[in-house]
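Supplementary Methods. Inverse-folding protocol.

Structures were first reduced to a C-alpha cell string of length 392. This string, shown here, constituted the complete conditioning input.
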C-alpha cells in the first residue's frame, strides 16, 4: 500500500509561481513606484498652480483611456469622443444648478446619460463599421454643439454654464486643491485598474480580435456588434464619469471649449496615440503628458525662429507633427516601445537575449494603428467595388 502524503500544506503550483513572478515583473514594480511618485507630488514643493494643472492632466488621462477602450481595442476610430465628456459634465451641472442636486447625486445621473449616449452611438455598429462609423462619431458632437447654441438659454451657448458646486469645500484654497488632486488621482487609478482588468479578460481578447479581423470573429460564431456596443457603452460611461467629476473641480467648467469642441476629441486622439493605442496604460499616461506639456507650452512667450510664430500658438501643431513622426518611427506608441526596450536591456544584462517583443509577439504582427488603417482600407475598397458594380 502506498504511503499517503503527510504534509497538510498545499504544494506551490506553477500557476502560483507564475503569478508571483508576473507581479514582480519590472514594469509592475515601476508602476508601483510611479503611483508612489504621483502620491508624493503635493509634498515636493510644487506650487498650487502646478497642482491645478496636474488635476486637469489626470482627468484628461481618463478621457484618453475611455477613448482607447473603443478605438484602441476594436479599431473603430472615434473622432467625437468629447460627446460623452459633455453629456456627463453638462448633465451634472444642470442638475446641480437647476434642481439643487448635490454632486453625489448629479454625477451618477450624468454617467447614466453618457452610457445611454454610448448605446445610441454604438447601435449603428450593428450595420456599419470603419470610416462610416467614424463619420457618425464625428457628426454627433457637432449636432450636440448646435443644440447647445440654439438652446443657449438652457445650455449657455458657446460660453457654457456657470460652475456648479465644488466637490470639496474648505477655508483654505490650498487644502481644496490638494483634496481635489487626490480625488483625481484615486479616480484615475480606479479607472486604470478597471479597464486594465476588462481588457485583459476574455472580453478584451474578443475586442482585440475584432480589431485584427472582424470577419474571422463573426465566423467563429461570436456576436461582433454586441461586443462593439459593450465597448461603446463602457467607454461612454467612463468618459461621462470623468466629465461629470471634472466640472466640479477648480480647473473644470461646463464649457464647450473644455468638453465638447472638436479640438478636444482631436487632442484625446493625439494623446492616446502618443502614449500607445490599445494599451490603456499608455493612453492614460499619454493624456497626462499631453495636457501637462501643452499647458506648459501655452505659457511660453518664446517665438519660433524663421516662422515668427509664438510657441504658445503652435503647441497643438507641434504635438500633431510629433505624433506623425512617432507613428512612423514608433507605430506602437511610446509606452509599448519603452516596455520592449526595457525587456531587451534586461535580457542582455542577464545574458539571456530575448526577442524584440520579449518573446510574445508573433512574426508579422502589426500595431493597432496599422490594423485600424488596414480596416479602413478594406472598407474603402469594398465601397469602390460597390460603386463599380452599380455602374456596370
Amino acid at each position: 500500500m502506498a504511503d499517503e502524503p503527510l504534509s497538510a500544506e498545499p504544494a506551490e503550483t506553477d500557476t502560483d509561481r507564475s503569478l508571483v513572478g508576473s507581479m514582480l515583473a519590472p514594469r509592475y514594480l515601476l508602476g508601483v513606484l510611479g503611483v508612489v511618485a504621483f502620491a508624493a507630488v503635493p509634498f515636493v514643493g510644487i506650487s498650487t498652480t502646478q497642482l491645478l494643472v496636474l488635476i486637469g492632466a489626470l482627468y484628461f488621462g481618463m478621457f484618453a483611456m475611455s477613448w482607447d477602450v473603443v478605438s484602441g481595442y476594436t479599431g473603430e476610430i472615434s473622432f467625437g469622443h468629447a460627446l460623452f465628456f459633455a453629456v456627463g459634465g453638462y448633465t451634472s451641472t444642470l442638475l446641480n444648478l437647476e434642481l439643487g442636486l448635490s454632486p453625489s447625486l448629479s454625477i451618477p445621473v450624468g454617467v447614466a446619460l453618457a452610457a445611454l449616449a454610448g448605446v445610441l452611438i454604438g447601435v449603428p455598429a450593428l450595420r456599419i463599421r470603419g470610416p462610416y462609423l467614424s463619420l457618425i462619431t464625428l457628426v454627433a458632437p457637432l449636432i450636440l454643439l448646435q443644440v447647445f447654441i440654439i438652446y443657449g438659454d438652457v445650455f449657455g451657448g458657446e460660453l457654457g454654464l456657470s460652475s456648479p458646486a465644488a466637490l470639496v469645500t474648505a477655508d483654505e484654497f490650498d487644502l481644496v486643491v490638494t483634496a481635489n488632486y487626490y480625488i483625481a488621482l484615486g479616480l484615475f487609478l480606479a479607472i486604470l485598474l478597471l479597464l486594465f482588468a476588462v481588457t485583459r479578460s476574455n472580453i478584451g481578447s474578443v475586442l482585440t480580435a475584432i480589431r485584427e479581423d472582424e470577419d474571422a470573429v463573426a465566423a467563429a460564431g461570436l456576436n461582433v456588434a454586441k461586443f462593439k456596443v459593450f465597448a461603446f457603452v463602457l467607454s461612454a460611461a467612463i468618459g461621462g464619469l470623468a466629465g461629470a467629476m471634472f466640472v466640479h473641480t477648480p480647473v473644470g467648467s461646463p464649457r464647450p471649449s473644455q468638453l465638447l469642441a472638436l479640438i478636444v476629441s482631436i487632442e484625446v486622439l493625439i494623446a492616446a496615440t502618443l502614449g500607445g493605442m490599445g494599451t490603456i496604460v499608455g493612453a492614460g499616461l499619454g493624456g497626462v503628458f499631453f495636457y501637462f506639456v501643452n499647458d506648459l507650452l501655452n505659457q511660453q512667450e518664446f517665438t519660433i525662429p524663421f516662422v515668427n510664430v509664438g510657441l504658445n500658438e503652435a503647441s497643438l501643431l507641434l504635438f500633431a507633427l510629433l505624433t506623425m513622426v512617432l507613428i512612423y518611427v514608433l507605430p506602437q506608441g511610446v509606452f509599448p516601445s519603452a516596455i520592449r526596450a526595457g525587456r531587451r536591456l534586461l535580457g542582455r544584462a542577464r545574458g539571456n537575449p530575448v526577442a524584440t517583443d520579449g518573446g510574445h509577439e508573433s512574426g508579422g504582427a502589426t500595431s493597432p494603428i496599422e490594423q485600424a488603417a488596414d480596416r479602413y482600407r478594406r472598407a474603402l475598397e469594398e465601397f469602390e467595388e460597390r460603386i463599380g458594380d452599380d455602374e456596370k
